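Re: beginner question about structure tokens

> Can someone show what the tokenized structure looks like for a real chain? I only ever see the sequence side.

Sure, here's an example I had lying around. Input first:
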Amino acid sequence: MVRRDCIGRRAPRALAVVLAAGLCLAACGGDGRPERAGGKHDRTGGAPATPAATPTPEPSSCPGGGRLIAAVEIPAVHGDPVRIPEAVIGGQRIPAVTIPGVDIPAQRVPAQCVEHRPAPGGCLGAVSIPGTSIPAVTIPAVRIPGVKARGIDAPAVEQAAVSSKAVSQPAVSSAEVCQSKPSKKGEYVSSVYRSGVYRSGLYRSSAYRSGLYRPRTCNDQGECLPSVSVPSVTAPGVNIPGVSVPGVSLKSYVAGPGQVIKGDDSIAYNIEADVLFDFGEAEIKPAAAAELGKIAKSLGEEVPDGATVQVDGHTDAKGDTASNQALSLRRAQAIVDWLATEGGIARSRLKATGYGETKPASPNTKPDGSDDPEGRAKNRRVVISAAR
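And the corresponding structure tokens:
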């Protein structure tokens, strides 16, 4: 009996301990950790927070001969605070007041690049001008407080916030265009034109908050409140000039075994792969040396010293894609090696690219799905190109 009475007395105590522990856990958010202001747990020692994304660096130059669009600086806007001194009217103390100033930090529309995408010879690469925007600006509201004291009733004077909305221009672009590739000597190849692109200029209007004035006010005892003046504030207008890229063209020509394609600012030599290589091979035929020699000589006359010479290899769609890609690159590299060792062009100026079957000049099959040998012959080619 004594033991049962003891246990009976201890049970409420144990229950109280359990209840107290539960209340503690509830106060800690249920997991025993202290809670910060706002109801969130203190995660000190837990998983680290995800770092903020690093902003994209602003370009100082543009690859591939692209034009750099200069950054536009938007100056800071500042207005000094105005302090209204303490006054005593009829024994009533009117405390001093400071009307906040204006501090809008400087802003910047970052520099951008006009993108000129690379293209094989006989093509004019796509060009694009990125979109841009000018952020909004707001000059905050301002208020000179009113005062009621013995013999004086000076009403409040205020001016609402003034804003100028953000403005933007979307990106503009012009797609790649290519001439048809001839399959035989004497075939006429028409000219092509890549249209110019223009991104219109952009203007964000100025924002102007007019000044405020509360006049000097006196009572019949000669006690006065001083006049208060808050100057006007202006956020100036911001202008981003228009950006344009002119249209360019490749002229028409009559095909020979190796066609010379002269554009407004480029030159390209389209050579049938069958003239240069045996089928499926990447070793230059001895008979192709004369044709390559003419091209090397023409490059020396037409292209500025130091300009990059691009050599692009292309195949038809016979065989698998990976093999065609590898073959086109080996053929382009073989031409690069010949021009460097036999053509007198510095290797540092030469660049080989293999396009495989990805940029056909003509369908590889006829409309009924059967093989088109003439179409495939147009696609087996090497194009050497450079800026003039």
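Each token stands for a local structural state, so reading them left to right follows the chain. Confidence is low (pLDDT under 50) at residues 1-47.
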